[in-house]
Design brief:
385 residues, alpha/beta, four-stranded mixed beta sheet, 46% helix, 15% strand, binds NADPH dihydro-nicotinamide-adenine-dinucleotide phosphate
Length: 385
């Protein structure tokens, strides 16, 4: 039996992970599940999977969680400390699927127990890549990619000489507004931005796909994960979302990973790694798909994308600044306070401001937190001014 914990169990990735675990009940023992506001789902899954502990990130919901778990014998916890406690419970495999930089501290706590961390929470790698990787190395922990593009790169690299990699191409669906006239983008609403053409995901990543902030995060994530130079990373718009990424080698060969747009493939790969097991995902019918299209992203439609290269060139705490500005701008868009295109404009300005005062020297959890906090305040000030 492998002992598994899921951080962010009530979300889209968390639920897909539990779906896979439910199909192999003899192989997995659930240690801890964490969630946020969705107490009903958290308690239901904690009971169903016989978890030892269930934790909500919201301290004010502890009583509600306790009542929902009454009589089950499952320990209930709430708040930041309890999230860390859940991540510290001994487990062989921990899914990091909290949304946003909120996933960083529990992710670090998980790595400190020297376990395998399946990383969906790209924001933690963008904001604090060097810290996360150094923590994993120090404690003998392993980080496996869950983002479909990074899982694709990881799979394409299996058995290859890393030194022979020339470039990596990450594909993007183009999101909800790929075919919308450019003139409409200033007025698109939250509802339409929250609908993805190919993938069924949480609201925040879906909106980030429409703006391509998600792809910008993934470019930085690829640099950190695979130790690439920024010049080695390319992005192509691929509306079919069948090819998730390609790796180009110095002999001119390209290895493409082709698969269905179902996160259970990438999650299942990380769950079963280094083995491949049956997964309940659709098998692609390439004849029915008929064609695979690739185009260069239009910088006028996706101004957020180029910021990824500015962040990578700046290095240091630039990722923490960029991620915080992006998260805050998204909060404001979802709340209806700013328009869709204002997000990238504001993040670009906050990044320029933040880089002037970015801390030099060693990255610690404290320096990342401070950058995050200051940048959020800066973005709020930019909106008011
Ligand atoms: P969801 O919004 O669906 O789920 C997020 C999870 O995090 C929920 O369990 C939520 O709890 C919990 N949560 C929210 N806020 C906090 C907080 N402040 N502290 C602790 N927990 C919190 O997100 P997704 O599943 O879509 O995405 C999760 C991560 O995976 C993100 O980093 C995303 O970028 C990445 N990812 C997602 C993909 C997808 O297909 N969805 C694909 C690739 C990467 P609750 O719902 O109970 O409030």
């Amino acid at each position: 039996m492998r002992r598994v914990t899921i951080l962010g169990a009530t979300g889209s990735i968390g639920q897909s992970t539990l779906d896979l675990i439910a199909r192999a009940p003899d192989e997995f023992q659930v240690v801890a599940l964490t969630g946020g506001r969705n107490i009903v789902q958290l308690a239901k899954d904690a009971r169903r999977f016989g978890a030892e502990m269930a934790v909500t990130a919201c301290a004010d919901l502890l009583d509600e969680l306790r009542s929902a778990l009454a009589g089950s014998g499952i320990a209930a916890g709430a708040g930041a400390g309890a999230l860390i406690e859940a991540a510290q419970r001994p487990a062989d495999w921990i899914m990091s699927a909290i949304v946003g930089v909120a996933g960083l501290t529990p992710g670090l706590a998980a790595l400190e127990q020297g376990t395998t961390l399946a990383l969906a929470n790209k924001e933690s790698l963008v904001a604090a890549g060097p810290l996360l990787l150094a923590t994993a190395a120090r404690h003998g922990a392993r980080i496996l990619p869950v983002d479909s593009e990074h899982s694709a790169i990881f799979q394409a690299l299996t058995g290859e000489d890393r030194a022979a990699v020339e470039r990596v191409i990450i594909t993007a669906s183009g999101g909800a507004f790929r075919d919308r006239p450019l003139g409409d983008l200033a007025h698109v609403g939250v509802g339409e931005a929250s609908t993805h053409p190919n993938w069924d995901m949480g609201q925040r990543i879906t909106i980030d796909s429409a703006s391509m902030f998600n792809k910008a995060l993934e470019v930085i994530e690829a640099k950190e994960f695979f130790d690439l130079d920024p010049s080695q990373i390319e992005v192509l718009v691929h509306p079919q979302s069948s090819v998730h990424a390609l790796v180009g080698f110095r002999d001119g060969g390209l290895m493409a990973h082709v698969g269905p747009p179902d996160m259970r493939h990438a999650i299942g790969y990380a769950l079963n790694w280094p083995h491949r097991r049956d997964l309940p995902v659709a098998r692609l019918d390439l004849a029915a798909i008929g064609r695979l299209d690739f185009t260069a992203p239009d910088p006028a439609r996706y101004p957020a994308l180029k910021l990824a290269w500015q962040v990578m060139e700046a290095g240091g705490h630039a990722g923490a600044i960029f991620n915080a500005a992006k998260e805050r701008a998204l909060d404001h868009f979802i709340a209806g306070r700013i328009g869709f295109l204002q997000m990238s404009a504001l993040v670009a300005r906050a990044l320029d401001h933040g880089l002037v005062d970015a801390p030099g020297g060693e990255m610690t959890l404290e320096t990342v937190r401070r950058c995050d906090h200051v940048t959020r305040q800066q973005l709020d000030r930019l909106i008011v001014s």
